[in-house]
Amino acid sequence: MVALWYLLLLAPFVALAVLWLNYRRKQAARERESMQRWQRVVEARPAISGEPSVPAPATAAHRLRPRLLEPADTLLFRLLALSLSDHDVFAGVSVDQILVPGTSLTGLEREARLRAWSRMRIDFLVCDKGLQPCVAVLVDAVDERMALVEVLRASGLRYVTLTRSSLPGRHQMRAVVLGEGTPAASRSSPNSNPDS
């Protein structure tokens, strides 16, 4: 009978020991899993070396364009860059990147104007080396973009229109775009159009 009492007295201590060991076993398993996850993260991180990382395959939600510009636009971009080597040429610039709404507009008017400008694209923007816009070059289909033409006129930024089917040669491109060698009357107009 005494042995039974000793067993009953030892039972809580045995139960506590079993619970403690069970807890330690589970805790060790959690730590192992955590270390394994950490190892997978470290191994998945690209190496910080001179080797380029392999890009992830494109998902169905998006993919990289094969070219920034179409071949015809690439030709015109190269022609502009060669002809205007003392200027910088940018392709596909939105109007909201070069214009700021006036201070007289209310907050809603400013937002509306910025939203409208963000949808307008200048095919090629010629800037001086200080990145101040000089000339907007519009290619084909200018009639469909009369709102853009009006904004450029109102801003005072000179613009020219070029037709892909009849581009000027490399040596004439500078005069056409910058208006060099034209009579003084048309040079003073910020929106002279060589095609008209």
Q: Explain this structure to me?
A:
This protein has about 200 residues and is an alpha+beta fold. The protein folds into 2 domains: about 1-45; about 70-190, no CATH class. The chain has helices spanning about 1-45, 70-85, 105-120, 145-155, 170-180, 185-190, and strands at about 90-95, 120-125, 135-140, 160. It has a 4-stranded mixed beta sheet with strand order 1-2-3-4, with helices on both faces. Helix 2 (about 70-85) packs across helix 5. Residues about 180-195 have low confidence and may be disordered.
Explain the layout of strands and helices.
Layout: H1 2-44, H2 71-83, E1 88-94, H3 107-118, E2 121-127, E3 133-139, H4 146-155, E4 158-162, H5 170-178, H6 184-188
Parallel strand pairs: 3-4
Antiparallel strand pairs: 1-2, 2-3
Question: Which keywords apply here?
Answer:
single chain; 196 residues; alpha+beta; 4-stranded mixed beta sheet; 6 helices; disordered C terminus
Structural class: alpha+beta
- Give the overall shape: elongated
> What's the SSE pattern?
HHEHEEHEHH
Strands of the biggest beta sheet: in what spatial order? 1-2-3-4
Total of helices: 6
Strand count? 4
Helix content: 40-55%
What kind of sheet is the major sheet? 4 strands, mixed
Uncertain regions spanning at least 5 consecutive residues: 182-196
